[in-house]
């Protein structure tokens, strides 16, 4: 059998008796031979919303009607249906969704919906109950911002249904600096009011200083009592922007022999400074002293009536560092016996580096002074 089994305009009741045995859907009867095996939900055809009355001044609702044109199913039998809110009831100002649900004898459920709009003809905007206070927080650890939660302000309206939303939302991540949050209260009729407050996020995190390769020990540069300090230090900050890194003594500079402490300070764009853990660089002197001039051999005559002579000689040493000392096997100015005396001088710098030199002192009877250059 073909043919639409049930049609009714502006249904107002809740049970539709479907007298025919099948519903034509696309020209094909879809009710199975065993109706209990039916899986096809019923359909609800909704019509237009009536104009209805208008809310009176001070009123927040108006009566509205709408049409349920048809409730149909592919199988015969009672289809129960209902709509919420029902047609003819009082609807609040604003937008209301009407949902109609129908259930066939096999328990399949279908639904349809429509919107009922009641205009607010006497719009009175909502009013915020409190003006939100500004919020001030510090940045989250390692972040250039902060997740900020705030209490969404409430608002009061002449009609129910006012809603408040804020942008950015509570729980958003706010960047460093000041962000204005705008909260908007919207009543059911679409009238709005707004309120603003500031979220101030301050950067309280100074840069982190990272120590890379450091030459903890280095030698003096040739001829100098200083060595070049070499290290690798970097700094990162939670916020973008240049980080000023300053170390004393500076990388690549000359520092004196001994232990030298290096201290670094990193400063971010917010002016927050972090002093890194200092480290030490030891400069060692490995350069030997040298005799300057190299001691000459000395030949003198004996002192009159003596079998020897008091001999002065020069034995000086130079070093890249101060504090070199010269010690000889027989001091200058002492009496040397006739014959050849080998004088050995040792020069020792402050770091223990040594140099040695030999010369000859030869007192000879009745001879003139002869300088013997080696
Ligand atoms: Ca059905
Ligand atoms: Ca209002
Ligand atoms: Ca910072
Ligand atoms: Ca030296």
Give a structural overview:
There is one protein chain. The chain is mostly beta strands. The chain has four domains: 15-118, Immunoglobulin-like (Sandwich), CATH 2.60.40; 127-202, Immunoglobulin-like (Sandwich); 208-284, Immunoglobulin-like, CATH 2.60.40; 290-372, Immunoglobulin-like, CATH 2.60.40.10. The chain contains no helices and 36 strands. It has strands at 15-18, 24-25, 28-29, 43-49, 61-63, 66-72, 77-84, 90-92, 94-103, 109-118, 127-128, 135-138, 145-148, 155-156, 163-167, 172-175, 177-186, 192-202, 208-214, 217-219, 226-228, 231-236, 244-248, 254-256, 258-267, 273-275, 279-284, 290-291, 297-301, 308-310, 317-318, 325-328, 335-337, 341-348, 354-364, 370-372. Strands 20, 23, 25, 26 and 27 form a five-stranded mixed β-sheet that branches. A five-stranded mixed β-sheet has the order 32-34-35-29-36, with no helix packed on it. Strands 1-7-9-10 form a four-stranded antiparallel β-sheet, with no helix packed on it. Strand 9 (94-103) and strand 10 (109-118) form a beta hairpin. It is rod-shaped. The N and C termini lie far apart (139 Å). The relative contact order is 0.09. Mean pLDDT is 86; it is low at 1-9, 19-29 and 366-374. The site of one calcium ion has 9 residues, from loops. One calcium ion is lined by residues 203, 205-206, 237-239, 268, 270, 272.
């Amino acid at each position: 059998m073909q043919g639409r089994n049930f049609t009714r305009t502006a249904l107002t009741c809740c049970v539709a008796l479907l007298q025919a045995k099948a519903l034509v859907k696309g020209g094909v009867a879809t009710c199975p031979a065993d109706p209990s095996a039916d899986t096809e939900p019923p359909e609800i055809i909704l019509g237009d919303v009536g104009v209805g009355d208008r809310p009176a001044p001070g009123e927040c609702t108006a009566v509205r009607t709408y049409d349920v044109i048809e409730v149909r199913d592919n199988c015969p039998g009672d289809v129960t249906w209902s709509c919420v809110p029902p047609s003819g009831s009082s609807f609040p100002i604003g937008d209301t969704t009407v949902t109609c649900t129908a259930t066939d004898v096999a328990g399949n459920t279908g639904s349809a919906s429509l919107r009922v709009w009641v205009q607010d003809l006497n719009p009175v905007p909502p009013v915020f109950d409190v003006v939100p206070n500004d919020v001030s927080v510090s940045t989250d650890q390692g972040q250039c911002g902060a997740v900020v939660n705030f209490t969404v302000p409430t608002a009061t309206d002449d009609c129910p249904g006012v809603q408040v939303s804020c942008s950015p939302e509570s729980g958003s991540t706010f960047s460093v600096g000041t962000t204005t949050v705008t909260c908007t209260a919207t009543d059911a009729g679409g009238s709005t009011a707004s309120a603003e407050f500031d979220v101030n996020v301050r950067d309280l995190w100074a840069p982190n200083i990272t120590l890379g390769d450091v030459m903890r020990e280095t030698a003096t540069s040739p001829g100098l009592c200083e060595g070049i300090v070499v290290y690798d230090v970097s700094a990162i900050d939670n916020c973008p922007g240049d980080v000023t890194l300053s170390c004393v003594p500076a990388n690549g500079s000359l520092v004196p022999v001994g232990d030298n402490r290096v201290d670094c300070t990193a400063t971010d764009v917010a002016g927050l400074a972090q002093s890194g853990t200092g480290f030490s660089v030891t400069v060692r002197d490995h350069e030997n002293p040298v005799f300057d001039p190299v001691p000459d051999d000395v030949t003198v005559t004996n002192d009159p009536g003596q079998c020897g002579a008091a001999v002065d000689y020069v034995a000086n040493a130079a070093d890249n560092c101060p504090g070199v000392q010269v010690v000889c096997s027989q001091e200058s100015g002492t009496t040397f016996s006739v014959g050849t005396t080998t004088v050995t001088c040792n020069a020792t710098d402050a770091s223990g580096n040594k140099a040695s030199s030999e010369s000859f002192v030869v007192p000879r009877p009745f001879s003139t002074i002869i300088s013997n250059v080696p």
